[in-house]
Amino acid sequence: MWQLASEQKKFTIGNVTIGGKPSESPTVLIGSIFYYKQKSLNFKEKTGEFNHKECERLVRIQEEFSDKTGLPYMLDVVLPSEKWISRVVDFVTSITDAPVLLDAASAEIRVASLDYAKEVGIQDRCVYNSLTPESKKTEYEKIKETRLKAAVILAYNTKDMTSKGRVNAVKQLLPQAIESGIEKILIDACVLDVPTLGLAFKAIVDVKNEFGYPAGCGAHNAIVTWKGLRTKMGLKAAKPCAAVANALTVAAGADFILYGPIEDAPFVFPAVAMVNAAFAQILIEGGKVPSLSHPIFKIA
Questions:
Q1: Candidate from 82-86, 162-166, 269-273, 292-296 with smallest mean pLDDT
Q2: For the residues of 55-80, what is the DSSP string, one character each?
Q3: What residue spans of the chain are helical by DSSP H?
Q4: Nearest to 73 by CA among 35, 102, 101, 31
Q5: Mean pLDDT over residues 129-141, rounded?
């Protein structure tokens, strides 16, 4: 279905393989935890305390649906502050072997997290999230200093929000990322709302065609920013729409999806696995047999 001019790159980050030709490898799903206002964890900025049992429960649910569907997973850990990096990272990495995206609201927190990742020796399972046209020199310098090898490039272009503008943003960022030592590049096609979801889909195909790097997006952003969804359609409409948005991303050829809150795993994993299984039949028709862990064999 996808005719791509560039050789499609495939990387191993921690225990997860990501990339390659569309539909050959299962889509990697990335759930966010410790995100702003995640009530269930009850994170307290003053003391660094949070609900450990709930955190582990949510991670186990994501693992469970990964096992059920055959879809690999990562964790997008949104670090709440520089002060509590060690406490959050230590706990998350103690309860799961999954790769971790080091995420935060500020560059200062993300940069500090790189030092800690190096200190405890977990760089091989960490991904910097993310590099943008606004990224500071200190970010690239710290990535190089700590020898982190994986990062997300956010195709965000404030001057040109078209799919072409997204590709141009990637062109701008790639040389800097490679110079800083990043070898495993993941491209986030940047979703802000429902209209940009379509533009991100086209950008996924375009960046994979031109550069060959694994690409995906945070489709969930389209649902979060849809103001009329709950008021006009009712509270029950949000989850089905989130499932559709994420599943459609697979149809655009995405290698990974930042699917939003980790709480959404029970309905996002089955939806994405269904599309993975459907497209795997195309491989079989072409004479290729997916691995036994592929969703086509897991969800039957």
A1: 292-296
A2: HHHHHHHHHHHHHHH---EEEEEEE-
A3: 52-69, 85-95, 107-120, 137-146, 163-179, 194-211, 220-224, 228-233, 238-251, 265-285, 295-298
A4: 31
A5: 96
In degrees and rounded to multiples of 5, residue 139 shows phi and psi of: -65, -50
292: pLDDT strictly greater than 90: no
pLDDT confidence tier of residue 18, bands split at 50, 70 and 90: very high
Q: How many CB atoms lie within 10 A of CB 249?
A: 31
Q: What is the CA radius of gyration of the chain?
A: 18
Domain ranges of the chain: 10-295
Q: What is the pLDDT of residues 185-218, one digit of tens each?
A: 999 999 999 999 999 999 999 999 999 999 999 9
- φ/ψ (deg, to 5) at 24: -75, -40
Residue with tokens 């955190």: 55
Are β-strands 215-217 and 256-261 bridged in parallel, bridged antiparallel, or unpaired?
A: parallel
Smallest Cα–Cα separation from 70: which of 255, 256, 230, 270?
270
CATH of domain 10-295: 3.20.20.20
Cβ neighbours, 10 Å, residue 202: 16
SS3 state at 256? strand
Distance CA 286, CA 279 (A): 11
Amino acid present at 186 = L
Count other C-beta atoms under 10 Å from residue 48's C-beta. Answer: 15
DSSP state letters, 74-115: EEEEEE--GGGHHHHHHHHHHH--S-EEEEESSHHHHHHHHH
Q: Strands 16-19 and 10-13: what pairing?
A: antiparallel
| 1: pLDDT strictly greater than 90 | no
Total residues found in the chain within this entry: 300
